[in-house]
Amino acid sequence: MEDKPDPVVQLVMKRADGRSILDSGAGSAQTAGQGDVDDARATLIRSRLQELGFKVAAGNLNTLSIMGPDELFKETFGLDPSSALAANVPAHATNIPEALDEFVADVFVTPAPDLFP
């Protein structure tokens, strides 16, 4: 039996002041950089996630792509990524643990795009 790959989920990081890209306006020139997380904080957030058992696949100034077993996502964020991906529906964290609350604004799964409706 072949092992199923860990799902890839998006995580929105918070800056030190508690703000994130989710608090900014939608893509205006005035708000474009308001949610950016500096490199030192992003490194700290990556480290905290890795300590919990997540793998950090990629990131930018606002988000990280993280991977891990379904059970780890369920226990940590109340999120069942494989079920959401299988149903092709969006899903968001129902819980951000207190230990991560100052670092994480949201954790979510987005459905695959429907390129040929």
Question: What brief labels describe this structure?
Answer:
5 strands, five-stranded antiparallel beta sheet, alpha+beta, 117 residues
Question: Helix and strand layout, with pairings?
Answer:
Blueprint: E1 8-13, H1 39-52, E2 55-59, E3 63-67, H2 70-77, H3 81-87, E4 91-92, E5 104-109
Antiparallel strand pairs: 1-3, 1-5, 2-3, 4-5
Written account of the structure:
The protein is an alpha+beta fold and 117 residues long. It is built from 3 helices and 5 strands. It has helices at residues 39-52, 70-77, 81-87, and strands at residues 8-13, 55-59, 63-67, 91-92, 104-109. A 5-stranded antiparallel β-sheet has the order 2-3-1-5-4. Strand 2 (55-59) and strand 3 form a beta hairpin. The radius of gyration is 15 Å and the shape is globular. The protein starts with 7 loop residues before the first strand and ends in an 8-residue tail after the last strand. The relative contact order is 0.23.
